[in-house]
Amino acid sequence: MKVLEKAPAKINLSLDVLGKREDGYHEVRMVMATIDLADRVECESLPEDKIVIRTTAPYVPEDNRNFAYQAAKIIKERYSIRTGVEISIDKQIPVAAGLAGGSSDAAATIRALNRLWKIGMTYESMLDIAKKVGSDVAFCIKGGTALATGRGEKISPLPPLPQCWIVLVKPDVSVSTAQIYREWDDQPALHPDVDAMIAAIMHGDFQAICHLLGNTLEAVTMKKVDEIARIKAHMRRIGAEGILMSGSGPTVFALTQRETRMQRLLNGMKGYCPQVFAVRLCRSAELLSKYE
Ligand SMILES: C[C@](O)(CO)[C@H](O)COP(=O)(O)OP(=O)(O)OC[C@H]1O[C@@H](n2ccc(N)nc2=O)[C@H](O)[C@@H]1O
Ligand SMILES: Nc1ncnc2c1ncn2[C@@H]1O[C@H](COP(=O)(O)OP(=O)(O)OP(=O)(O)O)[C@@H](O)[C@H]1O
């Protein structure tokens, strides 16, 4: 038997870090949204008791370092599953890009194995497994728009954003999330107004959402990756309502509600950077409707 799940990427509309915790992680407050740029995760039963990972991307590990493997292992142990699974990941989300590709694959694996092995997990049980794999995995279980707090694993849903286009530009470099958080500790930080962003989302005020976009990690990554400032400036020249780096970067996104502007951004940025995408938002119910 085979089960297929979509694993969509996220962007951070507002990302604040409140400080470093005793466990080494950072306390965050961030508003996240799921976008329609997605990997596809297929789980197929194996009679033997093993977990096999296959991916289409050259630099993604196919062993126990893969977040999908880690999620499957926890589920097998917790629910005493004695058969195996082959997990095939069709990667469309750029890797190490600030878009939570690996985290979303892990979340999709949790949803898929719940169906494949007919476990009947609650949303809370899924969250409990998710946070053992990584901080962003919990948000990716349901997706949509949400406030994430703690180290990112405490999720409070928010209303959907007004529909818009998201143009993503991924510079040809990768950054380490751990290193960006470490360097954040050593430099003065700007703090975006997360509460004002939440209010703008509550009011469905697209212009205010664009105006309030902010990410305290952006300045840290910009110091290491010169291209981010160049991409932002170029996008600003072409025209976008709001522009920001996602997560720990280096992907930059621009929001616009106008299709002509989206086309202009897409065409203008394509000659500038190898990886450019224009996508829509993705609603949470599309991911977890089977459990609600
Ligand atoms: C930057 C974001 O992508 C924003 O959504 C997330 O905060 C990162 O989430 P993630 O990639 O799932 O992070 P994890 O895999 O849990 O942690 C990777 C590393 O990032 C650092 N880390 C992560 C999350 C957090 N709240 N504080 C941290 O300091 C830790 O050094 C950790 O070892
Ligand atoms: N299924 C997976 N897909 C992609 N990378 C994975 C996967 N499993 C493990 N990894 C490892 O995780 C690292 C980070 O990949 P990922 O694409 O999730 O980063 P990211 O988009 O920056 O994540 P985040 O926004 O959550 O910080 C990769 O370099 C890779 O070694």
From TrEMBL:
Q: Which UniProt keywords apply?
A: ATP-binding, Isoprene biosynthesis, Kinase, Nucleotide-binding, Transferase
* GO molecular function annotations of the record: 4-(cytidine 5'-diphospho)-2-C-methyl-D-erythritol kinase activity; ATP binding
Where are the active-site residues found? Answer: 10, 136
Residue ranges of domain GHMP kinase N-terminal in the record: 66-144
- InterPro entries, A to Z: GHMP_kinase_C_dom, GHMP_kinase_C_sf, GHMP_kinase_N_dom, IspE, Ribosomal_Su5_D2-typ_SF, Ribsml_uS5_D2-typ_fold_subgr
The catalytic activity, as recorded, is: 4-CDP-2-C-methyl-D-erythritol + ATP = 4-CDP-2-C-methyl-D-erythritol 2-phosphate + ADP + H(+)
Chain ranges of the GHMP kinase C-terminal domain: 197-273
Its EC number(s)? 2.7.1.148
Which residues does the record give as ATP binding sites?
A: 94-104
Q: Name a single GO biological process.
A: terpenoid biosynthetic process
Nucleotide-binding in keyword set: yes
Pathway listed for it?
Isoprenoid biosynthesis; isopentenyl diphosphate biosynthesis via DXP pathway; isopentenyl diphosphate from 1-deoxy-D-xylulose 5-phosphate: step 3/6
Task: Output the HAMAP family linked to this UniProt entry.
Answer: IspE
Q: Give the protein's function.
A: Catalyzes the phosphorylation of the position 2 hydroxy group of 4-diphosphocytidyl-2C-methyl-D-erythritol.
Family per similarity comment = Belongs to the GHMP kinase family. IspE subfamily.
Query: PANTHER family per the record?
Result: 4-DIPHOSPHOCYTIDYL-2-C-METHYL-D-ERYTHRITOL KINASE, CHLOROPLASTIC
- Tell me the protein's name: 4-diphosphocytidyl-2-C-methyl-D-erythritol kinase
Organism the protein comes from:
Sporolactobacillus putidus
Q: What is the lineage of its organism?
A: Bacteria, Bacillati, Bacillota, Bacilli, Bacillales
